[in-house]
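During the no-cost extension, the postdoctoral fellow (Dr. R.K.) reprocessed legacy sequence entries with the updated structure-token encoder. One reprocessed record is reproduced below for audit purposes.
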Amino acid sequence: MSLALTITRTFLAFIILLPIVSYAAVKEEPWSEIEARTKFLRTKHYIEVVRVHSNVYKSARAKGGQNVQGPFPVHVILPENYETDVNRRYGVVYLLGGKSGWDNGPELGGATYWSVWCKTPLAMDNLKSGNLTPASFQENVNDQELRMFNQWLRESPYEDVIAVSLWNPGGGATAQYEKYLIDEVIPFIDAHYRTVPDRRFRGIDGACAGAAQAIMISARRPEIFGYCGGQQTDLGSYPMVPEVWNSNVGRIKKAGGIVYNINTNKRDGCNTYSNRGRLYELVQDMKAAGFPVTVSVFESCGHGYCAYRYPNGHQALYWFSRQFSNNMKALGINQNLSSSATSNIPNDDSTQGQKASSAQKASDFKTPW
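Re-encoded structure tokens follow.
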């Protein structure tokens, strides 16, 4: 496969000031206003726009039936000190957008879903600061949740990850998209960025329908992903998810297991956890199979961008950060950084196609739960 890189670097060195919002004036902006935005926020976590040339998707249809020629943009949200802390390696979270992302198409809304509409770079700035305020969530957080976030940050500070926001075409059949993501996008990211090319440092998450897809893709390809999240997971439109997951339990166990993070909101129309519906049943199946599952149900926000930009998005980023950080420490990665500090990084043969020494093979390690 031939991969070519076109990078437009947008280095934005200071954080945008949030408007002052009254505590009594919590606002969920209309989707139409959010989806009209195309410019990046000015944050400390900058974005590179890359185009991964694809043999899987030569073109795709966007909103209104317009045919968009590839390659499609992928937004890579990089750590705050990525260009100065040049020996440090990072775990990667692949973020799949919800239905409005693919409705708007690969150019108009695909990669933009998380980087612009859900304000993921701003959430990373907030977490890295170590102190969250109501303004960090545009007031969409209650006092108990805010105390919880800040306690987490005091006990174990957020450590940066690389977040990759990319278009996904939606629909129940994901085989073609899995090929694009796993055979083309992931090798590209591992080849061009300082990742740790190993399943213990690779997670997949998504919003709504993207969350359903993330669970299915990771279940079918657990040798690629050690961690999976789901934000406001839509199992109403994707009732096949539990069946797909259950049919792959043996495969997941053989790969070393997956650790799950599920979050939703009390007012979310897709919240089938609180009423002991499909999501609750899936979580119980995950636990019964022996896989760790973190579940968070937040008070504020209905279904949509508000949640992903605020409580759900912050919690998910922090959760992945802690998983990767624990694994870094367990394997001695990023410890006593020097020019040779990356020599003990394990290699994931499934995506790199290179051989590691017998002491460094991914199979020699167990996923720490």
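Residues 8-364 form a domain with the Rossmann fold fold (CATH 3.40.50.1820). Residues 111 and 166 are 4 Å apart (CA to CA). The remaining legacy entries will be reprocessed before the final report is submitted.
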